[in-house]
Amino acid sequence: MDRFLVFLADGFEEIEALTLVDYFRRADIFVDMVSVGDDLFVVGSHNIIVKTDRLIDDIDLDFYDGLYIPGGSVGAKNLRDDKRVIDIVKKFDEEKKIICAICAGPSVLDRAGIVGDRNLVCHPSVEKSLLNVGNIKSDKLIVVDGNIFTSRGAGASVFLALKLIEIIKGIDVKNSVKAGIQEDFVEKYFGFNFWYKFWINQFLFLLIYSFFAFFFYLKKGLYMLKYKNTDRYLISIKIIFLVFKF
């Protein structure tokens, strides 16, 4: 399950493609960059030239356990319009191999007809062009539906790569990669655990509030009892139980 191919066509988005390749190799996941053109050199959307490992006509599909389709509007269109790519995507889906796409990449899955009943996410600019998709999760960073992994765009590349590493190699390897690239520090620095801290703070607030409410109403109840106001005393006791029940 740890041998992947990454399709590259002229116009591919460099961050989306190379982030996954880099992180996979750090995690000892074998990955081939595969050109769909006539030679190994492919030009990215920002004019960065990358030498791929193989040509699409030279690969053995049975060797690979998954594939990845980066975005870049031109690059994704070139992959989408390549029948060889579409046939491979269909074959991998039939064999339940991992299929990943990011940004405009899900348009290739749409053309292949494998996401008609699936959940996915893509770049917002691509959503309306997808014609045969089950459900687009516009509020998600990464969507996993069976063997299909999708994500939004270049800024999510790190998180998609780490998610895949966790699935393929385990959480220890993922954490090792995170430490090596200092992603763990970045998350702490920017407070990515915000909601966790938020709910801890909410819990502490309710605990302190309940503590003071208990003694306030207990004191008030005892005062009422002292002056023979039994009804108000009982009301105070009920309030105490309601506070702690809440």
Question: What does it look like?
Answer:
The chain has a 7-stranded mixed β-sheet with strand order 5-2-1-6-7-11-10, sandwiched between helices. A two-stranded antiparallel sheet has the order 3-4. A two-stranded parallel ribbon has the order 8-9. The chain contains 9 helices and 11 strands. The two termini are 48 Å apart. With 246 residues, the protein is an alpha/beta fold. A hairpin with a 5-residue loop joins strand 3 and strand 4 (49-51). The longest helix has 33 residues, at 194-226. The protein is elongated and about 85 Å long.
Name the features:
single chain; 246 residues; alpha/beta; 7-stranded mixed sheet; two-stranded antiparallel ribbon; 49% helix; 17% strand
Indicate the topology:
Layout: E1 3-8, H1 14-26, E2 30-35, E3 41-43, E4 49-51, E5 54-55, E6 66-69, H2 73-80, H3 83-94, E7 98-102, H4 106-112, E8 119-120, E9 135-136, E10 142-145, E11 148-151, H5 157-169, H6 171-181, H7 183-189, H8 194-226, H9 230-245
Parallel strand pairs: 1-2, 1-6, 2-5, 6-7, 7-11, 8-9
Antiparallel strand pairs: 3-4, 10-11
Helix pairs in contact: 1-5, 2-4, 3-4, 5-6, 8-9
In whole angstroms, the N-to-C terminal distance is 48 Å
Tell me the major beta sheet.
7 strands, mixed
Overall number of strands: 11
Q: Please write the string of helix (H) and strand (E) elements.
A: EHEEEEEHHEHEEEEHHHHH
Strand order of the largest sheet: 5-2-1-6-7-11-10
Question: What is the 3D form?
Answer: elongated
**Mean pLDDT score:** 88
**Helix percent band:** 40-55%
Query: Which class of secondary structure composition applies to the elements?
Result: alpha/beta
How many H/I helices? 9
What proportion of the residues form beta strands (DSSP E)? 15-25%
Low-confidence stretches: none
Radius of gyration: 27 Å
